[in-house]
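Bug report (template v2)

What were you trying to do?
Predict the complex of my protein with N-hydroxy-L-asparagine.

What happened?
Run completed; filing so the output is reviewed.

Input:
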Amino acid sequence: MSFGIIATWRMALEGVEKAAKMLKDGSSAGDALENAIMAVEDYPFYKSVGYGGLPNENGEVELDAAFMDGDTLSIGAVGGIRDFKNPISIARHLSRERFNIFLVGIGAEEYAHKNGFERKNMLTERAKKIWDKRIREIREQNLSPYDGHDTVGMVCLDKNSSMAAGTSTSGLFMKKRGRVGDSPLSGSGFYVDSQIGGAVATGLGEDIMKGCLSYETVKLIERGLSPQEAAEKSVYELTQKLLQRRGKSGEISVVCMDNKGRWGVGTNVEFSFVVSCEDDNVPKVYLANPHG
Ligand code: SD4
């Protein structure tokens, strides 16, 4: 009877600490994961998730999130949702629906409102200042508008061997209004099957979705690779394919966990991630890079 959680980026640490306690006390993977991601969404100083996330080119904070239950394979997702406090909870709520499980824009906002979710202006003063500065730089120095983006993604295993996966992000800084990344797309930004394991991705969504990275990683685990081998192989192969066919690859990372609590990470760039395992139940931050 094993339990644990793995998450992308250092920003997940406080959330993972919460989740680790919950899992130890017997909470479900879904509850632990939702609480952990909410903690990241609520913290105003993370510039790429929830409150404080960086806006699109119109100065609006549009958020993507998804939730997946690894027992029933239920999925819920929102894309480009504005002015709601916890997109992960709205995504989880949608995962209990039979139809209309992935809503975007105004439709997602109407659904959230009807179902009693809390409205909140997600644009902080700080995010607005960063946006103002960037707009000036883009005009004056002809810089690429697309910069700064990190998704919080987590895979969680509970004491009953149930698993859940989830993601939440404001996506690409300065994205076009209506742009949706990989994070709410099943198989690209996340995938979990309690009988195998789960994976979540971070990096340039436009490239991650070209290879359905999370699903590929879970499939490799199913074929018998260890989570570490699966994560390394899926990232390496997608990166190579992009390089060969397109001459370039964006930054791509994936973290995964199998249904025994063994975990792995693959990346083509230096990136941080957080793991808490049953062994000591103390979340630790690790740095990964393309060479192991
Ligand atoms: C996106 N994959 O919207 C997200 C952003 C991200 O590290 O994770 N960046 O494309």
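What did the reviewer find?
The two ends are 29 Å apart (CA to CA). The chain is about 35% helix and 25% strand.
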